[in-house]
Amino acid sequence: MKELENILKSIKNKEFLPIYFLHGEEPYFIDVAVKHIENDILEEDEKAFNQTVVYGKDTNYGEILSLAKQYPMMGDRQVIIVKEAQDLALNEEQQEIFLKYIENPVPSTLLVFAHKHKKLDSRKKVGKALQSNKMLFLSEPFKSYGNDLSNWIQKECENIGIKTAPNISHLLAEYLGNDLSRIANELHKLKLILKDGEVLDGKLVETHIGISKDYNVFELQEALGTKNSAQAFKIVHYMGKNPKTNPLVMTI
Question: What is 109-172 written as a DSSP string?
């Protein structure tokens, strides 16, 4: 999610939008943004009165916007977070209600929608209005191939203080796929396990995540590239015996 860094930076600088509509197929970036909004905007003693969390399946836009039009108690701002916003019904009536609020939001309310696993229909009036007001933020998944995912893994390792041996980010990308939540969880577990100054290498990955440092797609690519047919056949044989950790579609 390209906009995630901008959202987090604006939160840190206390520069808030009245509406954040987070949507898309990648839930990880949405969860990160919501977590920061939930934890970093209001002080703990303010949250009891001025922070509300609701779920899409239990409410509707009319009820949400009724809350949004209220003013904060004993504070300057209220935060309303709508989780699982993809479950909200968005018929013509609800669209009109939301459009009116987008045109004239309450400045003291920070209204956040976590619309996960799918995009908001950009053809609808609401999508166009949010986009034109720069309140719509798209969270797209990385592809399970290419360098974007491995670069993200490498950056995450650096952010949490994990030193890595060469190609470890590629190895993790090959085997963990593009499930960013799973990758982040595995990296945080490794951070707890690694000793100060210890470098994450293939052996540690194999021990703690279960990825073989010798028999994996990354090593298969190298064997094929160097025309090492004996090693390539060994790797393929091992992977064929372990289909759960080496799914055919991802391997191809």
Answer: EEEEEEEESB---TTSHHHHHHHHTT-EEE--PPPSSSHHHHHHHHHHHHHTT-EE-TTHHHHH
Cβ neighbours for 197, distance < 8 A, ≥ 6 positions apart: 163
Report the C-alpha gap between 226 and 220 in whole angstroms.
Answer: 10
Structure tokens at 190: 């490794």
Check whether 149 has a pLDDT greater than 70.
yes
Q: Which residues contact 87 (CB under 8 A, 6 or more apart)?
A: 55, 56, 57
Strand partners, 41: none
The most confident of the ranges 43-52, 174-183, 229-238, 240-249 is 43-52
User: 30, 11, 7, 21: which is closest to 181 by C-alpha?
Assistant: 30
Interatomic CA distance for residues 188 and 43, integer angstroms:
26
Q: What share of the chain is helix, strand, coil (3-state, %, to 5)?
A: 55, 15, 35
Task: Please say if the pLDDT value at position 73 is more than 70.
Answer: yes
> Of 2, 54, 56, which is closest to residue 29 (Cα–Cα)?
2
Nearest alpha-carbon partner for 129 in 164, 101, 163, 110: 101
Confidence class of residue 1 from pLDDT cuts 50, 70 and 90? low
At 98, which amino acid appears?
F
Residue 99: count of CB within 10 angstroms of its CB: 16
